[in-house]
């Protein structure tokens, strides 16, 4: 029998064009890190001439701030024998600059690094704080503030959480492929989240309605965006609650406390809890430097004892929800730095923390079926690994199939 040979029935393979040989592959590389020592001295020791070093620094200066150089930032220098041919600056996994033709006319190029996104489930359990519960995650403070923003209208993350509260979220995580595997770069959007608290349970689903608006809704399709923020400070401590019969610490007599006092450092930014119009901005007796805002539904909010008022905030001007209107101080009758935050509805003082404001626009009727299907997909993703309530675990999910990783 003849030996099997390459016959006519084997499809002819089109010869691939020979890939351009990478001139950098043939170089010998020296590597180092920024920050520990002047880059000039490091490159000098690596064998570069003063002229070459200045050319490199001049080329990079428009794209890289040498004053912010950090030991995480790396440099690589490629030699052909004694001659330095190429230089690379790795400022982050997605920010890499190459300089070629160092021995001729140097050219700077930014390397395109492709990121990919994977949706992952992150779970946690509150011991002391949300930040702490996310300590096992990269960039945990950023992730905590993303989650806090999703629930900003319902949960005051500095006051409401209790030990043992649980949460889970499906979040976009971005990576690049590195030499030693995937490198996490940043978070994208929180796609869905649930919070199981001692006080209540909340859920949130990011959804784009057919009119192109992306917003967070609960499983029933009600918007999570409310007309009034729960607190005018991002980080706060309630030091005195609303009390119709309080003994005033400065006046030394009984006087109702028509608001909430938040202890906060001097010049902590104070935000408008809802969009509205400025009706007072300036000195106001014992209230010190004060701002009052008038909102829809006959709601008035007050911000007293400010150190200063933010620029552009004056009587008659409009402010948006979340806009900084002033900074915490102790002007007027105040014993220490704090914000007095008051609220009137229909001209009568109310406890701002006792108010529940109606949610804004729900998912439109025409989007309802699609929305419910979306919620069901998100819930499957969140529940997917069947290990609800397990803290410090991360289930990695790549729709439609699932993989699971447990991070430490
Ligand atoms: Zn007060």
Automatic annotation (TrEMBL):
GO molecular function: metal ion binding; metalloendopeptidase activity
Cofactor field: Zn(2+)
GO biological process: proteolysis
One GO term describing the cellular component: cell envelope
Record has Ion transport as a keyword: no
Organism domain of life: Bacteria
Compartment(s): Cell envelope
Residue runs in coiled coils: none
Region feature (Disordered): 1-24
Residues of the Csd3-like second N-terminal domain: 118-243
Major subcellular location class: other
Protein's UniProt keywords contain Calcium: no
Keywords: Hydrolase, Metal-binding, Metalloprotease, Protease, Zinc
Pfam families for the chain: Csd3_N2, Peptidase_M23
Domain M23ase beta-sheet core: 256-352
Descriptive protein name: Peptidoglycan DD-metalloendopeptidase family protein
């Amino acid at each position: 029998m003849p030996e099997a040979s390459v016959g006519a029935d084997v499809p002819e393979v089109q010869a691939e064009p020979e890939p351009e040989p990478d001139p950098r592959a043939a170089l010998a590389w020296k590597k180092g890190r920024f920050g520990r020592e002047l880059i000039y001295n490091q490159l000098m020791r690596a064998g570069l001439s003063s002229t070459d070093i200045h050319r490199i620094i001049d080329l990079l200066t428009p794209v890289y701030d040498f004053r912010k150089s950090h030991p995480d930032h790396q440099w690589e220098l490629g030699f052909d024998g004694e001659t330095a041919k190429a230089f690379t600056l790795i400022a982050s996994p997605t920010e890499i600059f190459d300089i070629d033709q160092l021995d001729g006319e140097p050219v700077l190029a930014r390397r395109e690094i492709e990121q990919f996104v994977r949706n992952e489930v992150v779970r946690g359990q509150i011991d002391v704080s949300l930040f702490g519960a996310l300590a096992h995650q990269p960039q945990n403070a950023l992730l905590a503030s993303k989650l806090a923003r999703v629930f900003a209208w319902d949960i005051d993350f500095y006051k409401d959480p209790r030990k043992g509260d649980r949460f889970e979220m499906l979040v976009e995580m971005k990576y690049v492929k590195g030499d030693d595997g995937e490198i996490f770069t940043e978070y994208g959007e929180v796609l869905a989240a649930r919070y199981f608290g001692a006080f209540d349970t909340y859920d949130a689903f990011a959804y784009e309605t057919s009119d192109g608006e992306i917003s967070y809704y609960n499983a029933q399709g009600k918007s999570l965006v409310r007309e009034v923020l729960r607190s005018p400070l991002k980080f706060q401590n309630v030091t005195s609650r609303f009390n119709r019969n309080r003994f005033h610490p400065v006046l030394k007599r009984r006087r109702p406390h028509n608001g909430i006092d938040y202890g906060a450092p001097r010049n902590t930014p104070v935000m408008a809890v809802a969009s509205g119009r400025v009706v007072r901005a300036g000195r106001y007796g014992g209230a010190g430097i004060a701002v009052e805002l008038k909102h829809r539904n006959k709601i008035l909010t007050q911000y007293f004892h400010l150190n200063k008022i933010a620029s552009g905030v004056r009587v008659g001007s409009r402010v948006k929800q979340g806009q900084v209107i002033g900074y915490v101080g102790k002007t007027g009758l105040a014993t220490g730095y704090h914000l007095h935050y008051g609220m009137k509805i229909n001209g009568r003082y109310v406890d701002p923390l006792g108010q529940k404001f109606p949610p804004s626009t729900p998912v439109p009727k025409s989007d309802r079926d699609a929305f419910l299907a979306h919620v069901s997909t998100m819930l499957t993703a969140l529940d997917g690994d069947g290990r609800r309530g397990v803290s410090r675990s991360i289930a990695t999910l790549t729709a439609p199939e699932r993989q699971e990783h447990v991070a430490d």
